[in-house]
Amino acid sequence: MNENVKKAKRCYGCGAALQTVDEKLEGYVPENLFNERDVLLCQRCFKLRNYSEDTPLEPVISEDFFKLLEQAQASNALFVYVVDLFNFEASFNREINKALQKSDVILFGTKRDLLPKSVKDEKLIEFLKERAEAASLKVREIFVTSATKNFNLKEILPRLQDYGFKRNIYVIGSVSSGKSSLINAFLKVYKNETSHYITTSIYPNTTLKVIEIPLDEKISIFDTPGLAISNSMLGLMEREVIRDIVPRTEVKPRVYQLLPQQSLLIGGIARIDFLSGSRTSFTLYVSNDVKVLRTQLRWANQTFANLIKFKKIRPISEKIKSIADLDAFDITVGEGQKCDISWTGLGWVSFKENNQKIRVYAPQGVSIAHNKSKI
Ligand SMILES: Nc1nc2c(ncn2[C@@H]2O[C@H](COP(=O)(O)OP(=O)(O)O)[C@@H](O)[C@H]2O)c(=O)[nH]1
Ligand SMILES: [Mg+2]
Q1: pTM to 2 decimal places
Q2: pLDDT at 199 over 90
Q3: Hey, which of 138, 146, 194, 338 would disulfide with 373, CB 3.0 to 4.6 Å?
């Protein structure tokens, strides 16, 4: 190597090239640390781990993401596509699916620990299979897992090594789907001695650059920044709200028997109105920290505004004072199947379709999906 070409030191948490010049830019480390050590974290990753502080960052531009995919495809990489089972509609992304169509994909449904234990893994795998087929993905295998609870990791790792034999493994997916956590969990199972873990966080955009983790001389796992999801509550709401809506433990389904002209107020951030149809059982899957209230539709606007004004509900967003600050979506469903209506980043409501008319409210910019039920 040319003597004035030095390999840049990079943060092992987020992959940013380290620098000692500007504290506000990515990859900053104080100069003394930079000179003393070879393996180190940038100041941001260090703080994130030690005091759970975080500076907002520019989202990853999707162009970069697709360039990265193309390069990996050119090298015959194996793709581990990580989707968040709790935030499925956001993380099973149409653009990613399209870009992956010609590649071998191993699909990981992660954060399984957030779904009720009573749901069987087989059911989830069946669901993932159906959706992957509908998206024309060449899925070689589907795993259901959890990085926080290490579900199935011991069985998955050898399979992954077989699939990845002499190929690099790229771990891809949308931002916050759980890629870095999953790699960290693998590292813990694979070789216990490492104390260098990749940075993870409930706030989007922790992994800034591709991080290479060599498993042996031939194979590396690559952690990637992930595709930013522009229409998710996680990217659109304040930190206080995110803290309440991101579940950390198993989500307890909440069942409401509703008559038409009744509403559910979901924190100070969302609402469902049951406009017409016959009595229906709605099961809500949102973080246990989100407070939910049932009311009559005719009182819903007033109640919603009052609960926010007197801080009698949570979470509350600075941006939402009344129902006028939310977008409304009208959905008329068919008959027979069980369906989910999901808010990207928040969760979903599940019910049996019987020609009901539903109005769903969400913060501006948050997308709503209506699909066949997951569980
Ligand atoms: N409950 C639960 N949370 C998870 C799991 N995996 C990741 N997370 C959380 O999801 C958030 C995003 O994870 P991260 O690994 O940074 O996602 P990445 O952007 O895809 O790398 C963090 O708050 C993680 O703690 C999991 O298996 N279960
Ligand atoms: Mg990451």
Answers
A1: 0.86
A2: no
A3: 338
